[in-house]
Amino acid sequence: MPSPDPVYFPVRRPRPWGQILQACAVIVAVPLIVLPFLRSGVFDLGTVGRYLFGPTILEAVWGTLSLATLSTALAIVLGTGVALLRISGNAVLRAAAAGFVFVFRGTPMLVQLLIWFYAVPRVIGRVSLSIPFTDVVLIEDQAASVFFTPFVAGLFALTLAESAYMAEVIRSGIQGVDQGQRDAARALGVPSGKITRQIVLAQAFRIVMPAVGNQYILMIKNTSLAYAIGYSEILLSVSRVYYTNFKYLELLLVAAFWYLLLTALITVLQHVLERKFPAR
């Protein structure tokens, strides 16, 4: 007896009424919150527009971006080294790496900034530098504070603090690589250094790319802490302006705009890289 032809029934998907109601609530709530704020006369939009792309602010934006980018890049390099020590077979190296992470992750970045800017130059005192076995003097009895500018102190502090976080991020990525790949490479006689570089780290960085992007965004915002040591970043620049014209809210909105814009640009770049270099 021939089998009957299959019967297909149309599938009707239920409407997501909950999501639709939530979207409508957001569409209604945003104007109700924003429009009264704009019409209140509490702040002057003209002042915001006048300073938004001012040369002082743009210079501060570049200062923020350069410090954050360089600190993050150095933190990735240093954090990778610390992460490799954290999984080392040597107990002393593991303990040293764990101590590094504990100290620099457990101490507030602001405290580290103040130490590098005020305390470290006093500990070093004066600096002299010459080329060995010659009479060529490169630095002749200079105070260490001359070299520890706000940028240098900020770079040291933010790099070391961020590298402690980055070490844990990268360590999690390394542990996410299948151990069988390493065992297979060793069985084929691949040198351990090549295994680490071309097999483990190459895959680990794909895994941790979203987390590294998030750390970079956090670093953009953490540069505002360099305000305390006089580094010319966004927050310090707007504060110098509002201390003279008392337009506190307007200038803080300018700072918020630039932080949001930088965050948005980095987020877009992060998504592009994630699509180009997927984790799996």
UniProtKB/TrEMBL annotation:
CDD domains, sorted: TM_PBP2 (cd06261)
SUPFAM superfamilies: MetI-like
Keyword DNA repair: no
Biological-process GO terms, alphabetical: amino acid transport
A Pfam cross-reference name: BPD_transp_1
Listed PROSITE patterns: ABC_TM1
A GO MF label: transmembrane transporter activity
GO cellular component: ATP-binding cassette (ABC) transporter complex
Domain of life assignment: Bacteria
Membrane-spanning segments: 20-40, 60-85, 97-119, 143-161, 249-273
Keywords: Amino-acid transport, Cell membrane, Membrane, Transmembrane, Transmembrane helix, Transport
Bilayer topology term: Multi-pass membrane protein
Keyword Cell membrane recorded: yes
Domain ABC transmembrane type-1: 61-270
Cellular location(s): Cell membrane
Main subcellular location of this protein, as a coarse class: membrane
Family: Belongs to the binding-protein-dependent transport system permease family.
Name this protein carries in UniProt: Polar amino acid transport system permease protein
